[in-house]
User: What shape does this take?
Amino acid sequence: DADVTQTPRNRITKTGKRIMLECSQTKGHDRMYWYRQDPGLGLRLIYYSFDVKDINKGEISDGYSVSRQAQAKFSLSLESAIPNQTALYFCATSEGQSGANVLTFGAGSRLTVL
Amino acid sequence: AQSVSQHNHHVILSEAASLELGCNYSYGGTVNLFWYVQYPGQHLQLLLKYFSGDPLVKGIKGFEAEFIKSKFSFNLRKPSVQWSDTAEYFCAVSSYQTGANNLFFGTGTRLTVIP
Assistant: This one.
């Protein structure tokens, strides 16, 4: 089994719909992240969490929300999806301070908003 | 805000050619530097990292990178590429001053190796 599992892997939805992307990990890492990848723009940080009670906005948090349900679970929600949220979304984890930024990524969730 | 520049968007090489991918960053403080690789259809994985010490770091699969502080650069190199190196390569930077949790990625360089 993968260390970081994302579901769904692919999703097509319509404008205005609520979408949730889920992420679970077996690494035992405290830190979890959501990134989006767009062609020519690299990866941009949406939200990150250092533990269950700690949630922080990243570069591009507008239009997104997150929930850290447990140490191993971190979900990303689009309350009302819009076409420019079409992208590849990655969940990632990392250890605490000593291993910060050495990220373990999930396989990605490709979202298409029509 | 910190920025990371990867000037080569797409590089095409023949097998056995030498590779150098450029990475420059904008922040002048103490930085942590990374190269991640994304093989076709796979997730990103760490290729190599620099935190401190010897500025020439070696990673997996024969890759290396050199941190040149005066040039704000962390270029990735490989003496002889293989077809299996075809992938997208991302440089990433973080610094303690801007929050070590904030990892800024470049836009990526797509490498195509022709057999």
